[in-house]
């Protein structure tokens, strides 16, 4: 099966490539566009991107295995990124992370069996004056407590 | 203290629109530069302001611009470092949120001074939520003739592209950033050649931090001596000090360069809450070696912090309260560097990972003084043996933690 981006994604990809003097330079934004529309970077998409940018497939793979925000397997419908660096850990980030692990029954890097929520433990999110902080589908939240986190999880589950 | 003066950071969140920026005199400095100044005069003014890089290295921005060869035949590029990843740092986020046009105007002035027509803003992947506003600010500026082919009706033009990162702390290092924009793994390059001669797409390139560029319009509007007068003769202007951790009012404070660290923590951020006391302070992002309570009278400028054995870095201040187990702080620090080492230089790749494994082991299974010595030896094995400053940035804070809190750590890991 070969990868075909949606017409909307393809249009964004073409526009993005045109912004750079060299095609390969567009690889990060192009992969972001694919992940946004497909939820992850399917194996076939790697080959498609390589052809599109006129590079060897290994150029795509080495990007995916270096930058932590790209996923090569499907993640959850929603993503929780929990910061655990210094400012957040001083404000109880480990307790928040333990609470979420307990509540979801999964560890960092895992997705709930129903595929709804993916949990990621991350380093500094640059939101230290709102520690402990996290991101819900890329949206910053903080300072969070066990109660606000419980409410966030309930809301995400309700959305399904 | 700077109050009721020109501020880098407006207080209200609605101030980011072009209309609001223009009401405060926005783009007047760019107009002055483009229509009434020679490019060399623009660079000279910024040189005279002694604005030292706000990203962490503290190199004077004007001098950096001056390194770009005048006779370059290839196109030149400007890269904005918006890869704010240094733990404890959140100032560039606020500029991007509240004052994106100050950044764009600073970019315009820098590009005019150096003769650049294309700029990239490298926005860290975790800040993707800020991209929409930044793109909208760029669109506003373009529609109003402040960006695009003929800025303010002159022959000068500038195009701006927002380039998203994807989760790699190392891309804040300038040559790793260039690799990342070019579409490769963010692994630092061997220097020389420096980016000023061989940078992005093998062309002369200026790389500046967001806050550095956002401060440039003020320098052009009010003059180098005005800017210098707001800070120190060796380190001009005001800076955005981010304060987090155990303080009553965490946040970003715009204060004169050289303001004492203790004043920032106690007066501006309100000191530790409810009867707590300070155990230690990270003065400039996680890579800045930790300071003890008796070391907090240091002036917050690049040279003073270096003399104090630490680093002003990104000026992200983290206040650690009494009662905090320093073994936990060491673990968080060691984990961060082990996770973020890019893997290119063996001493850093292996060293940071061994340090983390050692810390993890003694934290869970106990250990002795020899384990702390091992950590120090590993840290020393990294120093001076890496291509980029990440190695020092990992080794020095770990060394400071182990040295300054040796007794506590020995007791904590004693079996």
What keyword list fits this structure?
heterodimer; A: 160 residues; alpha+beta; five-stranded mixed beta sheet; 12% strand; B: 415 residues; four-stranded parallel beta sheet; four-stranded mixed beta sheet; globular
Secondary structure elements and their pairing?
The complex is a heterodimer of chains A (160) and B (415).
Chain A: H1 7-17, H2 27-38, H3 43-53, H4 57-64, E1 78-83, H5 86-90, H6 93-104, E2 110-111, E3 117-122, E4 134-136, E5 139-141, H7 146-159
Parallel strand pairs in A: 1-3
Antiparallel strand pairs in A: 1-4, 2-3, 4-5
Chain B: H1 18-23, H2 28-36, H3 39-48, H4 61-66, E1 77-82, H5 91-98, H6 100-114, E2 118-123, H7 128-143, E3 159-164, H8 174-181, E4 205-209, H9 210-222, H10 224-229, E5 238-245, E6 251-256, H11 261-268, E7 278-282, H12 302-307, E8 316-321, H13 326-340, H14 346-365, H15 369-382, H16 390-404, H17 406-413
Helix pairs in contact in B: 2-6, 2-9, 3-6, 5-6, 6-9, 13-14, 13-16, 14-15, 15-16
Task: Note down, in words, how this protein is organized.
The complex is a heterodimer of chains A (160) and B (415). By secondary structure, chain A is α+β, with helices and mostly antiparallel strands. In chain A, 46% of the residues lie in helices and 12% in strands. Chain A contains 7 helices and 5 strands, in the order H-H-H-H-E-H-H-E-E-E-E-H. In chain A, strands 2-3-1-4-5 form a 5-stranded mixed sheet. Chain A is elongated, with a radius of gyration of 18 Å. The model of chain A has no long low-confidence stretch (mean pLDDT 96). With 415 residues, chain B is of the alpha/beta class. Chain B is 44% helix and 12% strand. Chain B has 17 helices and 8 strands. In chain B, the strands form 2 sheets. In chain B, strands 3-2-1-4 form a 4-stranded parallel sheet, sandwiched between helices. In chain B, strands 6-5-8-7 form a 4-stranded mixed sheet, with helices on one face. In chain B, helix 5 packs across helix 6 (100-114), helix 6 (100-114) packs across helix 9 (210-222) and helix 15 (369-382) runs antiparallel to helix 16 (390-404). Chain B is globular. At the A-B interface, helix 2, helix 4 and helix 5 of A face strand 3, strand 5, strand 8 and helix 13 of B.
């Amino acid at each position: 099966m070969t990868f075909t981006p949606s017409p909307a994604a393809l249009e964004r990809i073409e526009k993005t490539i045109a912004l750079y003097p060299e095609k390969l330079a567009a690889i990060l934004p192009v992969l972001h566009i694919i992940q946004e529309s497909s939820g992850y970077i399917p194996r076939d998409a790697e080959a498609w991107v390589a052809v599109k940018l006129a590079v060897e497939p290994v150029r795509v793979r080495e990007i995916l295995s270096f930058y932590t925000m790209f996923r090569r397997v499907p993640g959850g419908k929603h993503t929780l990124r929990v910061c655990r660096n210094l400012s957040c850990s001083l404000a109880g980030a480990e307790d928040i992370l333990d609470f979420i692990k307990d509540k979801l029954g999964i560890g960092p890097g895992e997705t709930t069996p129903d595929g709804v929520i993916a949990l990621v433990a991350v380093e500094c999110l640059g939101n230290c004056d709102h520690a402990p902080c996290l991101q819900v589908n890329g949206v910053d939240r903080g300072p969070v407590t066990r109660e606000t986190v419980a409410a966030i999880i309930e809301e995400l589950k309700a959305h399904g | 203290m700077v109050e009721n003066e020109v501020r880098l950071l407006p207080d209200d969140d609605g101030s980011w629109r072009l209309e609001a920026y223009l009401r405060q005199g926005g783009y007047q400095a760019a107009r002055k530069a483009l229509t009434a100044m020679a490019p060399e005069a623009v660079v000279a003014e910024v040189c005279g302001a002694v604005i030292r890089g706000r990203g962490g290295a503290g190199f004077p921005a004007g001098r950096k611009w001056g390194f770009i060869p005048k006779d370059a035949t290839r196109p030149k590029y400007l890269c904005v470092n918006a890869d704010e990843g240094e733990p404890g740092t959140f100032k560039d986020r606020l500029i991007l949120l509240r004052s994106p046009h100050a950044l764009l105007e600073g970019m315009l002035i820098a590009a005019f001074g150096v003769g650049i027509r294309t700029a990239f803003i490298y926005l860290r992947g975790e800040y993707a939520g800020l991209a929409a506003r930044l793109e909208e600010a760029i669109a506003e500026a373009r529609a109003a003739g402040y960006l695009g082919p003929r800025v303010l009706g002159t022959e000068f033009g500038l195009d701006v592209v927002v380039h998203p990162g994807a989760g790699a702390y190392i891309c804040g290092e300038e040559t790793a950033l260039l690799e990342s924009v070019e579409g490769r793994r963010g692994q630092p390059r061997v220097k020389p050649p420096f980016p000023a001669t061989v940078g992005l797409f093998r062309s002369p390139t200026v790389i500046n931090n967001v806050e550095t560029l956002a401060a440039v319009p003020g320098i052009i509007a009010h003059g180098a001596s005005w800017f210098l007068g707001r800070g120190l003769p060796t380190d001009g202007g005001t800076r955005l000090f981010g304060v987090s951790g155990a303080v009553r009012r965490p946040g970003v404070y715009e204060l004169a360069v050289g303001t004492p660290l203790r004043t920032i923590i106690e007066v501006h951020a309100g000191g530790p809450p409810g009867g707590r006391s300070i155990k230690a302070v990270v003065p400039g992002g996680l890579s800045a070696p930790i300071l003890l309570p008796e070391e907090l009278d240091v002036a917050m400028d690049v040279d003073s912090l270096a003399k104090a054995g630490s680093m002003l870095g990104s000026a992200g201040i983290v206040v650690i309260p009494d009662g905090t187990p320093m073994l936990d702080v060491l673990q968080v620090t060691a984990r961060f560097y082990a996770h973020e080492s890019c893997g290119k230089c063996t001493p850093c790749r292996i060293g940071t990972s061994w340090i983390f494994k050692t810390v993890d082991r003694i934290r869970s299974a106990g250990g002795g003084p020899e384990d702390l010595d091992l950590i120090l030896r590993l840290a020393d094995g990294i120093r001076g043996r890496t291509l980029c400053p990440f190695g020092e940035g990992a080794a020095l804070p770990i060394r400071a933690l182990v040295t300054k809190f040796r007794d506590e750590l020995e007791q904590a890991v004693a079996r």
